[in-house]
Amino acid sequence: MFRFQIISRAILFAILISLLQALLPSSAAFTSGPEKDKPQISIKKGYVAITLIIDAELRRFTELFANCLSEGKTWAEKTNDDAAAEWRDNRRAFRGLQWFYERDYQLRSVVGRYVSVVRSDDWFDGGALQIATSTRFCGTAPQVSASVYDRSLPRRPTTAKP
Question: Which of 42, 60, 67, 135 has the most CB atoms lying inside 10 A of its own CB?
């Protein structure tokens, strides 16, 4: 009798685990979506790799998405030009390593008509790995890009009063 209870509990436990595995989605579904890992800008050369990723959730704020993409495109072009100049003038600075630069824009929160975006910069340019973050706020009104400002800067956004 005692042995039967242990075996029946083990079988019940195995059935319960298999049901939970079947009902819960796999962890791969949480980590990658169709647009989650896809960079908007990717520049890969032998000496440098530059990546710009904008969170797919920011697409619903079209002007903010366009603002982040425009800023990121300018940053990627400048970074690529700087790395190319360094490669041309001082290849010894690379020491046989590939430099990389990555910029991410992540949706942090949406409260009423205000959106908070976190910008993260990671880069390696021959020294130690460096990381910088800043938080941006904007209004979701039609003039989104006019009210965007960087929290790390001391100035406030200027908006025209009616």
Answer: 67
